[in-house]
Each structure stands twice: as structure tokens, then as C-alpha cells.
Amino acid sequence: MISIDQTFVDSEAPNSNAISNGRGLLVKGKFVALHKSDDETILFGECSGSGRTNYHCSCDFITPGKVTYRCSCPSRQFPCKHCIGLMYAFTDGKPFAVASVPEDLAAKREKLEQRVEKKKADATKPRKVNKSALKKKIQAQLDGLTLLEQLTHELIRTGMGNTNAKTAKNIEQQAKQLGNAYLPGAQSALHAYTKLFSGDDGGFDSSVAPQQREAIYSQALDQLTQLNALIKNGRSYLNDRLADPELAAETQSTIAAWLGHAWQLRELKEAGLVQENAELIQLAFNSYDDIARRELVDTGIWMNLGDGQIGLTLNFRPYKALKFVKAEDSFFQIAQVPELCLYPGDINPRIRWDALTPRPVEASDLQAVRRHAHSDFATILKTIKTHLKSPLADRRPIVALNYAQIGKVGDDLVVEDAAKTRIVFTETGQAEEPASCHLLQLLPPEMFQNQTLIGRFHHDLRARTLRVKPLSIVTASQVFRLTF
Length: 484
Hints:
Elements: H1 6-12, H2 16-27, E1 31-36, E2 42-47, E3 55-63, E4 66-71, H3 81-91, E5 97-98, H4 103-123, H5 131-158, H6 165-175, H7 177-180, H8 184-194, H9 210-243, H10 255-258, H11 265-270, E6 274-290, E7 295-304, E8 310-318, E9 334-342, E10 351-353, E11 357-359, H12 363-372, H13 377-387, E12 398-409, E13 412-416, E14 422-424, E15 449-460, E16 465-474, E17 479-481
Parallel strand pairs: 1-5
Antiparallel strand pairs: 1-2, 2-3, 3-4, 6-7, 6-9, 7-8, 9-10, 9-11, 12-13, 12-15, 13-14, 15-16, 16-17
């Protein structure tokens, strides 16, 4: 039985053009045949196009939580506008005649089932490691760490006081070699340092106020500490793997990801980093442009309703493949995930899944968010400070806070718990996130008391205090998003 709505179709579309074009096919009456199987597991139809023959499209729902799209059109987008339009026709209540599944579709479905079974069988087979290729890659990474160490020492010799936009740009040019050494994480870390010294006009010393310059120096020192830890820990990890190529990737820390390891779902499952039958609610969403890695990144912030852990989904879209990689978007339902895979991490691990089934958000789901949120600010502040002692830890963790009230103390906007412990709000989160504090004043008065805040913490190194950037507020009836 097919159960989809317009929100589902919107979320499946690869981009906004596919949505408008799919809708356009219905408005123009392009569908000349609409059918469904007698067991209602597949939609199929014909759509007239620019060619002499109609396009044959189908949406196969035989696999729970994962739709298979097929179309005879030449588009390289999946699903194409014809499949999107076919689903819109179904959600709009257009009549679909029951018909036998065409032989070609039945054959493709059979092949799909065979591939699924083969994939399951392959998952139980031991993996073969190309030791020669792996050793070459590891050696290239070690050479890359040596280059990173040289660049870091050059930054230290130059001194933060003498670093400006020009010297930062020269370092960035040399750092491009780190991408060729399979070290995208190291390249991003170095870029995070150099961009501290590049203003909008390319200036630094002459254009930045002394007080702001001091703050930049504090951040730069923290970045240098992170780079040093990456070099030290990365070299030790890679030498161990060079000595034993079959050694499994590290799962107790994030060092593998820092060094560019692309985790496969199979690896995560083999390492036991999987939860079954998880239910997730998205609390915030943001897309940004990662210039250093030349890709767009879609970031979803989710809470596991079972254990309250907040995890991140990351969808990377390289510049060269923007037309062919589906963009993620905000998700306003509950995601029912049969197998939830968790990447190595602590407070906010990256999460990923193969398939999901959506369902509407209920009041009990929002109550679960509040139940998992922290009501004792002093305790969570202590936990975050301990977390930040690790140089390679996420510097801006996200948590859920049950607050007694939000208000102003002097010039500061603060959030307070029942014990009167206060945390000052800040606009400083990730550099790519939009501002959100100014939106708080637009909320109704009841939002300022006894609600749940989803916030990203920021360690103000100059003031030596933790501040929080508001991302969303959860009430008994809704999730109010402040960043989007």
C-alpha cells in the first residue's frame, strides 16, 4: 500500500527545478496514462515529451523506506521530473487505473531483488584488501602530514602578529597539495586558520580593531593546537596502519575522518556502530558553501527520540557534480529508520541511513525532545568544557536545553535555568550559519518561558566563557526553527 504525501515528494526531488517541472507536467496535462499495480506497490505511467514516443516512468515502493525510480527519458537526475510528476499525480488524487505490471518493469524488479540478495550475501564475505594500493595511499598521507607540519611551522615562525591576507593566501596555495595527499580534513583545518586573517577587503592589521585582533589571535592559537594534534595523532595512526594494512579504521576517535577516511555503511555495521528501528526528528537544517573543499554541504541536525542523542547528517555536493547529486532539505516529519549508522564521534556524531519511512510528528515526539533535554545548565557546561579539552573535538557542540526563561541582563541576551544559572547568547556558531539571535524578539511572549532550546555552543576564548547560539525552540506543539 503506497502512503505518500506532497511533503514526501518534495523531499525526494533532487532540486527545486525538478519540483516545478514535475508540477508543470500535471498542469499541462502531459500524462497520457496513469497506472498502479493491484498490490499498490508500484506506480507507472506514460508522459508525452519532445520525442516521437512517450516516456515510460515508474516509482517502485516494493522496498520499505526506499523508492526505486525508473524512466526512459535521457535525464541524469534521479528521480527525474517525470517520476516526480507521477507521484504528484498520485498525491493530488488523480485516478490511477489498476493494471498488470509491464514485463520490462517486472524483469527489472526481479533483477533488483537479486541485487539486494547478492548485496546481503556479499556483506557476509570477508573483505579483500589491496595492500599495495593501501600502503601507497598511507605513505602519501604521511608525506602530506609532513607538508602540513612544515606549513604549520612556517605559520609559527611568521608569527600571528605578522600574518596578513597575503601570507595567508600563500599558505592556502601550498595547502592545496594536501588534497592530493588524501587529507581533506587537514586541508580544511589549515583553511580554518588562514581565513581568520583575511577580511572582506583582504586587509588585516590596518583594518581590524585591537580588541577584535585579540579575539582572532585566541582563535588562531586554538587552531594551531588543533593542527599540531592532528599531525601528532595522525602520524601515529597512519604508521600503525602502514605496519598492518588490514588493521581496521579507528572507531574510538574521529582521527580516521580527519585523515580523509570515507566510511562505508558496511564498515560501520561491522564495527557495531548501528542502531535498529530508530526514530529521528530534525531540529534544524542549514546548507553552506565549503570553499576549501569546493563543495556544498547540507547539514541536518537530528535528535534520536530513543536515547536523546543529537546527530548530524552531512550531504556533500561537489561543484563538478551539482546537477547530479541530490540536495538535502528540511524535513518536517519523523524519520523511521530501520538501520541507523553512527560515525565515530562523541557529542554529535555524524549519522547516516539507507532508507527511511516518514510519519507525522505527534505531541509525544515533542515531549520526548523535552524529556531528553538538559535542565541543569551547570552540569552540561561542565560536560562541554571537558569535551573541549581534546584538541580534535568538535569545537561547537549542539545540545538541547530546558530553560526557565530568556531575557536581558544589561546588554546581554541570556537563557536561564530553574537554578538561575545563565548562559549568554551569541551569534557565533559555524561561520556559514545565518544569524539567529535577532529573530528571538519576533517570538510570542510565551516562547520566553519554560520551553526547550536547541543551541550550538561556542567557547569564547578571549572571555573564557561558553556561549550558545540559538538554532530552534521546541514547544509542546511545534519546532520553531531560527536558522534555515
